[in-house]
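Handoff note, outgoing to incoming analyst
You'll be picking up this chain. Sequence as last confirmed:
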Amino acid sequence: MKKFIEPFQYITHELGNLSHVRQAELACQAGAKWIQYRRLNQPDEVLLEDIAKIAGICDDWGTTLIVTDHVHLNGRADIQGFHIEDMNADFLQLRAALGPDVTLGGSANTTEGLLRLAAEGADYAGLGPFAATRTKPNNYPQLGTNGYRQAIQLLREQQPDFPVVAVGGIAAADVPALMETGIYGIAVSAAVYDAPDFEVAYLQLYNLVKGA
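Most recent structure output, in case you need it:
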């Protein structure tokens, strides 16, 4: 079943003063059609309280709500899908547990990872990191523009319709060259959150992605 995958995705985080709920509200006011709620290491009651509020905001704006990991919350809130960060997760098992209607995305750092996700039932992949990122520190190789170009070229030979979103340390200045690699879209957090004006930054990035 082919799902709606938005080319420009905002990922919430907790590095600053804005709550996840407020981030979702600001992003939706700026026109967001995809919010990925990323909050780890919290009890279910905290997560569900956030998700209930964010889901209400997303419903008002017609925005897709994706939750990072926490698949055990499926059916307990108005969640359209899940993004799994564990690159070794069993997506065949996850798809079987979630069913065909739930949007399921995963993280990858290589073309091989992308191909596995596509083969095991993921609807899209987040490929990264593009560059260094403080939002999600990791030791994976930074791909840069050339890394995305090579990965997408190889992927298209076997999975031409599989959506791949670039993620990790992306700034507005990087977007035009990234979109020229054939990538489906981008996902950001700090590029919007850390900007002097949240809405202005969101709209700038949105227009760069949509205008590509």
